[in-house]
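Anyone else keep sequences and structure tokens together like this?

Example one:
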Amino acid sequence: MSVRIRPLSSLNVMLRSLLLSLLLPLAVTGCNGPLPFMSGGRLDGEIQPAPQRWALTKDFGVVQLETETEAPYSVNVAYTLVEGQLYINAGDTETQWVKNMNANPLVRLRDGGSIYELRAERVTDEAEISAFGKAWTSHSMFHRDPAELDEVWIYRLLAR
């Protein structure tokens, strides 16, 4: 009995290469946080004490947020600093990370290689929403003013 080996077609080789190129980055980074448009798991980094007054590189940008539910869930989120206070904003969308924080406000934030263990507190005060909105909309003409929305999901992040 002879075994017949069939050569791989070029389409088959291309499909395998494409699959490998998509899965390899997920396998390498999947346990260390989110990808640009996908959530991740537990964030790695060196735990630092939360500052009383935040002074990040810029007054706005993107950081990684881990919510503490049954399984760690991390996402990339936009942050805004207003007078040294750190805010994150989901706009008028109650995202999965917002639902997680409503269930458990203890979060972890990664900026660069540093992890900060924090507590998320939803902002409901109209004056504070307005002050945040001025800073938020100054970053981009595409940012909607949260004061004009019916319901917003803005959180200040505080030391635990």
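And example two:
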Amino acid sequence: MSANTNWPLHHDAAIAAIRAEAFQAREKFATFNSAHEGVSVLREEFEELWDEVKADNLELAIAEAVQVGAMAVRFVADMRAKLAASEASKVCGHVASQSLLIPAGTTCVLQAGHDCNHASAYPYAARWEWTK
């Protein structure tokens, strides 16, 4: 199998087109409300791509493929943002009474690996986020 020396150039152009389309979509439309909505948009774009492929219309198929790629990027970005916001908003309900490490009256916000097992001396306080 011989190497195609034009591939990197075409690859860069494809990524640039997908990125431009993703930015344009971000400015034009709100973030996906849910993974279901995102998948529905991806499915719709893929169906349009498939229609152009079946019609043997390569130029329009490429344009649709760019939209599929852009919506995939948007899906990843939107769902990562939702996941981060969801994790940041989880509160275990533990309120510190007094500690040398944690100001009294602050609330523990769940972090990755947090097991809500608050020892009286808060030995793992560094891995928790505390908010007023």
